[in-house]
Amino acid sequence: MNVFELADFAHRLKPIEPGTYKLWLNAVDPIGELAVSDIDDAQVTRYRMERLKPWGSWCGGTLKMRLASLQSIWNVGIKAKLVDTNPWLGQGADYTKSKRKYTQQSWNYFHEFHKDPMFLCIWHHGMRLGEIAGILPEEVVLNEEIPYFDLKHNKIRKLKNEESIRQVPIHPACRPFVNELKLHNSFSSYSPGEIWSRRLKRRTGYPAHSLRHNFINRMRKAGVEYSIAMRLVGHSPQGTTADYGDVFLEDLEQAVLKVGGLQKLR
């Protein structure tokens, strides 16, 4: 059995998201034709040294992810008794994944996308790309006093974590466009929204995730209370009081409107 075959077997034995499998294949590609039995400590060291090149501050993070992917593949192989040990275990500990910084841009900078449903949904709510690109029609609730996105795991994509399961009030500027959101093809080899994000970056120089950073910056400037801000974007708030009290849909709606320069009094 070669490494490509082991990765394919692990993929069939352990269902994962298409995007994760793509990361697996990227990690496997340089050694895919090698026999699994040939992957020893020396081969692992060679893999690390040949991949660690001075491409920029993100290089260590990329290698870290690839080593983690190989570790996952071998873990599945061990459970299936196809391999005895995992030579990739702990190999990514020496590398760090740097967080990219994005220059804050104004609404007018993205003028080409002002009527693009995907852009509007991320700009006005700070959602992750996959959250909105993989949403289903039944998760867009319009027949309530406060229309909202009902974000949860579905057949197209899983959310990042449990904090990501949430309800997000729909900004008034988005409501006329939400029915135009194009559902992601669950059989595609791309992650939800990946092609759209590439188009955004090609036209503006910024990927979709930069819009999430932009929204969070605007929340800070607008003075949105911390626990409400964290709930809105699906982050887990930190601190002793983080688990106390409730955040209601009305609170989230006020925050969405405040960031967008609107105010709704109840």
Could you walk me through the main structural features you see in this protein, from its secondary elements to its overall organization?
Residues 55-59 have low confidence and may be disordered. This protein is mainly alpha-helical and 266 residues long. The relative contact order is 0.11. It starts with a helix and ends in a 7-residue tail after the last helix. The chain is built from 10 helices and 3 strands. A hairpin with a 6-residue loop joins strand 1 and strand 2 (148-151). The protein is elongated, with a radius of gyration of 21 Å.
User: What percent of residues are in strands?
Assistant: under 5%
Largest sheet: 3 strands, antiparallel
Q: Got a strand count? A: 3
Average pLDDT metric: 86
What pattern of helices and strands is seen along the backbone? HHHHHHEEEHHHH
Helix content: 40-55%
Instruction: Output the radius of gyration.
Output: 21 Å
Give the neighbour order of strands across the main sheet: 1-2-3
